[in-house]
């Protein structure tokens, strides 16, 4: 009997060592849980080094799951750099319990209905599974409190939890960050005021659009803020993350002391039945949306703004969702950071033909002096040695930093960069403390803003 017990102990130890060894040597296997957004598929759009080609999908019978598998098969069959995913799927109402029981992989990928996401995160890390999650990880205060506990559980179980912040890999965000930290060009970060924040991040998006040349069909729940999340807890995550990543690199925040919420607003986008049908394919508003329907018009609280300070620096982030962009236009974006010597901005509007442009502008109406212009040109020459092809062009009283197309990647390509960064953290068995603090600070700001936001009808 003792021999049998000893043998079983040895086998258990070998299995535990094998699991740890596979993680440390880089063998990672993906399990996508309840996919409902195409971002889940984009994680697997490119070949991922060290990732098992056998992947798993668990979910209920849904359009989201079918679309996810369809995209993976499309990536497999394309002529240019095809992937080689072998897909195992489980479809059933008990999909979550089934995944936690079988655990054929060690990475859970989440992108879909945000109402359940925080619970999925918590249950996954509790089962000793790493989680790569689309934003937002939490859409209200209750979710944020559960997320805090999920991070504590993940630390205890020695697994990783990470959200997909693609904008860190946008060349314009990268260059703006480098300019902000170039004292010869930018000076130092201004403190700003509530009326004139030092950092402004604004964006305008559209519900109905084309992705990869085809109309983007959204699930009907996408228009329910209780499932998708309101605008100030969703897209704002990217803006708040960039504030932290660009202006306070690798800073470990204490959100209870480093953040002061000054105010927030929320207001709706009005969607007609015809627009809803065009966007979702559903001819009527479902029952769960009736609470938001007035006079046959759906009110979606997808818009808002947040004013806050981070370590004493005044910040404003704002988001707006319209139904569809006018012909010839598109999404717009403003990212402005004010320094003592210059204002560095990314602008994407009509004047930029709805493509991002990077500006270096004077802090006063007199413009840059000849000496300042010479100094800026000299500093850009140094940066161009790293980012080859960028050039400086005078524009009004300032400059545009021209970025060649060779340095510009599409948004979809950024997902592989985020995934590989996360996979490396998993292989190393550790994540920098600042990464965790960025996530907690970010979701504290968004959920606290929602809880205190003023409603504008």
Automatic annotation (TrEMBL):
**UniProt keyword ATP-binding, yes or no:** no
From which source organism is this entry? Answer: Sphingobacterium zhuxiongii
Q: Which SUPFAM superfamilies match?
A: NAD(P)-binding Rossmann-fold domains (SSF51735)
* InterPro entries listed in its UniProt record: Gfo/Idh/MocA_oxidrdct_glycsds, NAD(P)-bd_dom_sf, Oxidoreduct_C
Q: Which residues form the Putative oxidoreductase C-terminal domain?
A: 175-454
What is this organism's lineage?
A: Bacteria, Pseudomonadati, Bacteroidota, Sphingobacteriia, Sphingobacteriales
A single GO molecular-function term is: oxidoreductase activity
**What are the protein's UniProt keywords?**
Oxidoreductase
What name does the UniProt record give this protein? Oxidoreductase
- What Pfam families does the record tag this protein with? Oxidoreduct_C
Q: Return the PANTHER family for the record.
A: BCDNA.GH03377 (PTHR43818)
Entry annotated with the keyword Coiled coil:
no
């Amino acid at each position: 009997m003792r021999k049998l017990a000893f043998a079983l102990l040895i086998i258990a130890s070998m299995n535990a060592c094998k699991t740890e060894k596979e993680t440390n040597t880089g063998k990672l296997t993906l399990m996508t849980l309840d996919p409902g957004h195409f971002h889940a598929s984009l994680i697997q759009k490119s070949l991922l080094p060290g990732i098992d080609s056998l992947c798993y999908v668990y979910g209920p019978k849904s359009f989201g799951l079918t679309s996810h598998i369809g995209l993976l098969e499309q990536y497999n069959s394309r002529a240019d750099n095809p992937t080689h995913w072998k897909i195992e799927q489980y479809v059933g109402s008990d999909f979550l319990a089934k995944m936690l029981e079988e655990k054929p992989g060690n990475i859970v990928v989440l992108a879909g209905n945000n109402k359940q996401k925080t619970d999925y995160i918590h249950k996954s890390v509790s089962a000793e599974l790493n989680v790569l999650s689309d934003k937002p990880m939490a859409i209200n205060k209750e979710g944020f409190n559960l997320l805090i506990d999920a991070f504590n559980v993940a630390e205890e179980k020695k697994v990783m939890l990470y959200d997909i912040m693609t904008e860190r890999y946008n060349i314009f965000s990268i260059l703006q960050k480098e300019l902000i930290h170039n004292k010869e060009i930018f000076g130092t970060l201004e403190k700003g005021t509530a009326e004139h924040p030092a950092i402004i991040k604004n964006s305008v998006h559209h519900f109905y659009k084309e992705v990869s040349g085809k109309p983007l069909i959204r699930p009907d729940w996408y228009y329910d803020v209780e499932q998708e999340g309101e605008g100030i807890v969703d897209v704002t995550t990217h803006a708040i993350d960039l504030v932290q990543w660009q202006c306070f690199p690798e800073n470990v925040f204490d959100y209870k002391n480093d953040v002061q919420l000054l105010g927030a607003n929320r207001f709706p986008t009005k969607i007609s039945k015809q627009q809803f049908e065009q966007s979702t394919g559903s001819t009527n508003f479902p029952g769960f949306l009736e609470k938001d329907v007035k006079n046959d018009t759906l009110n979606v609280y997808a818009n808002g703004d947040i004013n806050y300070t981070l370590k004493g620096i005044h910040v404003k982030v704002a988001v707006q969702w319209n139904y569809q962009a006018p012909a010839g236009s598109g999404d717009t974006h403003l990212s402005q950071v004010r320094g003592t010597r210059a204002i560095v901005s990314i602008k994407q509007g009509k004047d930029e033909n709805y493509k991002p442009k990077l500006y270096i502008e004077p802090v006063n109406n007199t413009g840059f002096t000849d000496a300042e212009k010479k100094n800026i040109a000299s500093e850009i020459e140094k940066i161009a040695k790293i980012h080859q092809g960028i050039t400086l062009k005078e524009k009004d009283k300032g400059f545009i930093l021209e970025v060649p197309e060779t340095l510009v990647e599409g948004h979809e390509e950024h997902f592989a960069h985020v995934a590989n960064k996360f996979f490396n953290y998993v292989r190393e068995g550790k994540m920098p403390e600042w990464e965790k603090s960025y996530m907690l600070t970010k979701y504290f700001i968004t959920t606290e803003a929602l809880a205190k936001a003023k409603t504008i009808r």
